[in-house]
Specification:
α3 (39-53) packs across α5 (93-102) and α8 packs across α9. The protein has 222 residues and is of the alpha/beta class. A hairpin with a 2-residue loop joins β4 (78-81) and β5 (84-85). The chain contains ten helices and eight strands. The protein starts with a helix and ends with a helix. The longest helix has 17 residues, at 170-186. The structure holds cytidine-5'-monophosphate.
């Protein structure tokens, strides 16, 4: 890594699906005036394109070539790819499932490394995902591993979906979250695990405000 990039601070926030990482990362980035990287969105984009192009979800070379050639942009909460707004498309359930499958493919993960590291720009970056602290930004200034009880996460996801007008039920969500966690935790390449030097935070009984306050306190060292 270039010496200049190494001096740009990174806050890495990792954890299982629906642990609240995305919301917390955005709020922490806003408070610090930093850029924000939602690394899951990159896996979702690859999942979407793979489905649209009929690619096998375990075809390493094809997925890596897809990722190496894509130039998504993130503007005002929207995700754009070649002039197309794919913000809502990448949040679809089937795309999430495809993302979770392609995320286990080693060559794809390697192909996405450069794209993720390019987001490290002054004055700093808050990055959320599964391997931000372990693989992508091992020198992050602060690493947080955010976890929450499975039932709490499923309830939160259910509430979000219902608020957005989607139909969903708790039993299906529990199964989906459990499957995704298991796939992320047991894959060979960059499995979901807390970095040795991560601060582990269980948000089951905490509000978003409390989690954000805790992360900012750690970052500021008080
Ligand atoms: O975070 P989100 O649920 O949007 O991520 C979609 C999928 O991408 C996850 O289920 C996970 O398998 C994968 N992912 C990953 N590594 C990351 C971010 C996401 O493997 N850094």
């Amino acid at each position: 890594m270039a010496a200049a990039a190494a001096s740009i601070p990174v806050v890495a926030i990792d954890g299982p699906t629906a642990s609240g990482k995305g919301t917390v990362a955005q709020r922490v980035a806003r408070a610090l005036g930093f850029y924000c990287l939602d690394s899951g969105a990159l896996y979702r984009i690859v999942g979407l394109l793979a489905l649209e192009r009929g690619l096998d979800l375990d075809n390493g070379p094809a997925l890596a070539a897809l990722a190496a050639g894509m130039q998504p942009s993130f503007e005002d909460g929207r995700v754009l790819l070649e002039g197309r707004d794919i913000t809502d498309a990448i949040r679809r359930e089937e795309v999430g499932r495809a993302a979770s499958r392609v995320a286990a493919v080693g060559p794809l993960r390697v192909a996405l490394l450069a794209l993720q590291r390019q987001q490290r720009r002054p004055p700093g970056l808050v990055a959320d995902g599964r391997d931000m602290g372990t693989v992508v930004f091992p020198d992050a200034r602060l690493k947080v591993y955010l976890q929450a009880d499975l039932h709490v996460r499923a309830e939160r996801r259910l509430k979000q979906l219902i608020e957005k007008g989607y139909s969903a039920n708790l039993t299906d969500l529990l199964r989906t979250l459990r499957d995704r966690d298991q796939r992320d935790e047991t894959r060979d390449c960059a499995p979901l695990v807390a970095a040795e030097d991560a601060k582990v935070l269980d948000s089951s009984a905490l509000t978003v405000d409390e989690v954000v306050a805790r992360v900012l306190k750690w970052y500021r060292g008080d």
